[in-house]
Amino acid sequence: MPTTKHITLLSLCLLALAAAVSGRLHAQAMPTATGPGGYVSAGVGAAAYHFEYGERYLGGITGWVDANPVWRYGLEGEVRSMRYHTSEDVTETTFLGGPRIAIFPGPLRPYVKLLAGAGHYDLPFGFAQGTFFTYAPGAGVDYMLNDIVAVRVVDFEYQVSTKFQTSRSGPESNLVNYGISAGISIRLNPLIKFPKAFHYKKRLYGRGPLEN
After folding, report:
1. Is residue 13 classed exposed, middle or buried when 0-12, 13-18 and 19+ CB atoms within 10 A define those classes?
2. In this structure, which of 126, 130, 158, 168 has its CB flanked by the most CB atoms within 10 Å?
3. Domain locations in the chain?
4. In this predicted structure, what is the pLDDT of residue 178?
5. Alpha-carbon distance 97 to 75, whole Å?
6. Residue 47 to residue 152: CA distance in whole angstroms
7. CATH 2.40.160.20 fits 4-28+35-187, yes or no
8. What tens digit of pLDDT does each residue of 80-120 get?
9. What is the C-alpha separation between 63 and 81, in angstroms, rounded?
10. Residue (of 95, 87, 62) closest to 185 by Cα position
11. Would strands 108-122 and 129-144 be described as parallel, antiparallel, or unpaired?
């Protein structure tokens, strides 16, 4: 079974790859006048989640990278560490990634997403630990303060860790955690502004060659 160190390195590689691919696509595709174009952003925030194991609430920190070749469709990579307000040394760390879709452009941008990856759990007093496949449908709202800075007003996720076991011989079941997070993100790639209208050359019949 992979260790937390291996999963962390893999997650960082996936986030870097997503950012690189998005940057290449953005360089090849010029934004149109109908949307804000492609972007890559990175953010950090705080999270509060209900943890089904022991019916407890945990607090933590979260970080994410959004890579959007176009304004509506993109990828999100996310790491979340829930280690605050814990009892009996129970913690959770998730490494997730997947598609993210913005509903409409503008300063206030609601979105939906479907992430999947790994959820790592430390159980009471170090008695056991394990890493399980985890998927998480979610939705949220970003508010664009300007062309560079955005506030993640709220992000909701419903996480399901499959085949969860408290011991090697224990029964398997799905562990369900859900909660919200909020934070702030910064655009990483340079902003390229285009005029609202483009002037095309037109032929003036009977009056010579093309003119502007």
Report:
1. exposed
2. 130
3. 4-28+35-187
4. 96
5. 7
6. 12
7. yes
8. 999 988 777 888 999 999 999 999 888 999 999 999 999 99
9. 9
10. 62
11. antiparallel
pTM above 0.90, yes or no: no
What does 14-61 look like in DSSP terms, one character per residue? HHHHHHHHHHHHHHHS---TTS---EEEEEEEEEEEEETTTTEEEEEE
The amino acid occupying position 47 is A
- The 10s digit of each residue's pLDDT in 158-184 is 999 998 876 666 677 889 999 999 999
Segment holding 8, helix H or strand E:
helix 4-28
Local structure of residue 191 (DSSP, 8 states): P
Q: Which of 135, 143, 147 is nearest to 108 (CA)?
A: 143
What secondary structure letter does DSSP report for 70? S
Q: Which amino acid is at 99?
A: P
Q: How many residues does the chain have?
A: 212
Which three-class secondary structure state does DSSP give residue 163?
strand
Tokens of 60: 């933590």
DSSP string, 120-154: EEE-GGGS-EEEEEEEEEEEEEEEESSSSEEEEEE
Best CA proximity match to 84, nearest among 108, 60, 104, 64: 60
174 close to 162: Cβ distance less than 8 angstroms: yes
d(CA 55, CA 86): 11
